[in-house]
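Page 42, continued from yesterday. The earlier attempt failed because a stray header line got pasted into the input along with the sequence. Redoing it now with the clean sequence only.
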Amino acid sequence: MAGAAIVTAGAFTTFGGLLLVPLHEERGWSRASIGVAFAISMVLYGVTAPFAAALMDRLGVRRVVVGALVLAGAGAAGTALAGSPVQVAAAWGLGVGLGTGAASTALAASVAERAGAGRRGLVAGLLTAAGVVGQFVFLPVLSRVVEGYGWQAAAWGLAGAAGLVAACALALLRGARAAAQAQAPGTGGASHVVTRALRVLAAATRRPAFWLLAGVFAVCGASTNGLLWNHFTPAAHDHGMPATSASTLLALVGIFNVAGTIAAGRLTDRVDPRRVLAACFGLRALTLVALPLLWSPSVGVPLVAFAVLFGLLDVATVPPTLALCRVHFGPDAVVVFGWVNAAHQLGAGAMAHLGGLTRDTLGTYDPVWVGAGSG
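This time it went through. Structure tokens are written below.
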């Protein structure tokens, strides 16, 4: 059931890329103003994670997951009804950002930490892969709904899916609270959740390891969530490629994300996670710098090769990063990882806005691809 919740939350995180062009063309809003909603959503996605991780220890997985999915669904429904960029920012930015932040990375990390020694990397990889399935594999379906019935129908569909999975989680995640309390005896009330998350952050910021992990994850978020997820489809559209074809390429990224993330999880259980992380970032940089040379109106071998290679590397960084948090921060690893992921989403949010601003100003996305790869 945790996997189903993560899949559903993942579908929200890449749907924004399908909203950008129709909102711009139908409503006449600038890409930069629409990007504000995506930026808010991505920042809240990250900032929510450490508090959600602490809250799961206090209330259990079921309550947090159900509340998160209801909130995300309400955000999608509100976006379908929105009449201005400010309303989109309130609905998609706040609702979807908070909801997906509590039902994605924090949930995967919390469940992975409860796995036995020697299996945590694999479990983290599997659950991260579940998020990837939601992020990319369902994207062509949503793209066809947008093409055939309009973006509002797709938004309502996502809202309904979130409600259905929330109902299933409410019925099936029995005993999750007791399990969580057994893992974290003696936790206090809601104030304890906030206090613990902030106390862990204060302690972590005194360690160089935290700043290194947060810094590289901020760059990671800028190049993946911020740029690829939100601006790949509009950039492909600029080069004459239909949105359905671009979404198919992103789905291919998602398929290979599954293989890459699971493989990274297994490697993390066996070799130094620093090596796994360094290899992922180095190879990913090369793919981004090369992308402006590969664009074409149709899906060809070069773009397929990009999708495969980027897919193998995209979220493969999660298992080794979680492992390094465990090495440096021990029992507070999940909450620290939540804060590291917050840095990831700060980078993503900045790029979601700057990508649209660059396109509005220069008429091309090419500088942001090269800049993200160089960073």
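Notes: The chain has a mean pLDDT of 82.
Reminder to self: strip header lines before submitting.
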